[in-house]
Design brief:
Blueprint lengths: L7 H9 L9 H4 L19 E7 L2 E8 L5 E5 L10 H10 L3 E5 L17 H16 L6 E6 L1 H12 L5 E7 L3 H16 L4 E2 L2 H10 L6 H7 L4 E4 L38 E4 L10 H5 L2 H7 L4 E5 L7 H8 L4 E4 L7 H4 L1 H14 L9 H28 L1
Parallel strand pairs: 3-4, 3-5, 5-6, 6-10, 10-11
Antiparallel strand pairs: 1-2, 2-4, 7-9, 8-9
Amino acid sequence: PDIFEMSSLQKEVVTKHLPPFPSIPNHRLGGGKRKKDYSPLPWHDFFDTSQDIRIDNNSFRIYSKGSSGPVLLLLHGGGHSALSWACFAVEISKLVECCVVAIDIRGHGDSVTTDDYDLDSNTLVRDVRTVFSTLYKDHAPPTVLMGHSMGGAIAVRVAASGSIPSLVGLSVIDVVEGTAMESLFGMQSFIRGRPESFNSLEHAIEWSIRSGQLRNRLSARVSMVGQVKSDTKSTTSSSHPLIVGVTENIIEEDESSDSACVSQSSSDSHYVWRIDLLKTEKYWVGWFEGLSKLFLTVTVPKILILAGVDRLDKDLTIGQMQGKFQMQVLSGCGHSVHEDLPDKVAAIVAEFLIRHKLTEPKEGFERYVLLVLTQKLLLLLQTISCLLINILI
């Protein structure tokens, strides 16, 4: 008989003679909260080699992938590290022949210098030049400079200085003088608004996603490893239950709350930011001042990749209309464009390299190019639709 039509007495008799129901994980029943993986990932999942370049009393960490084709020399943004390029390195290596070389800039990641807080633009340009010349000496292959944010500003200055004679291309990601200078006013508040420490690497990674700093969890799991460091000397205090324990305690709940990720309770070991960017404030203006005009003076092929068209300032708007550089705007990403959308940025860069005959494509490149062309077509259709709507109204 149907158990739902039985009397309560019949149900009791039947169920007493039935074996117990097998236990089923909550996520299969649709109950409970699904855990997300915030565990850190090692550099060697993304790069082929890691080495320290020693120059005088300084040591600069570089990560490399690939052994043929032009060098893509990658410079990260302020507070980040070379590991922010990890996912991009994997994606670009699928598309074209190239040798990716990502540098931990002074004061960041695993680079160690006599003065980690000397982030003067001239110092950083000199660092990039000496690291590059130490790596390649008199046999430098064709080189494309790429930089994000602060790293983009330094890439422009390195290119304009003529420090790399083998330079054949320049790619700058989401840095424009006008908007960068305006954003400096809020930079102090942004930095002070971040948690001072985390209970573990997992919680630092979790915070980066929940706070919106990064939108790609895979990239966050390798990138955040280079942004924080273990600190066993100082302790903090807190009472939030989620911060005690390991990865298993990180669950998908209170997505709008950052406090769940922050280490505030006393602990023998916790993680703090690798560099205190507030101590470098006096150098910020020097990174971006005069950047747009300097960018336009660089004679090699150039591409500017932005997270929004509103970021263009007057000089770049005029330069773009005159065809002095290629521009690509991506949507659905934050400031860390190459981390949030590594496959799309890789496709754009690969197309740029092939268009200027700087490298050769690999199998599957056509699929990625089709994706980029489709995005461009959709953007064009959206523009046409807006114009038609305005005309009809």
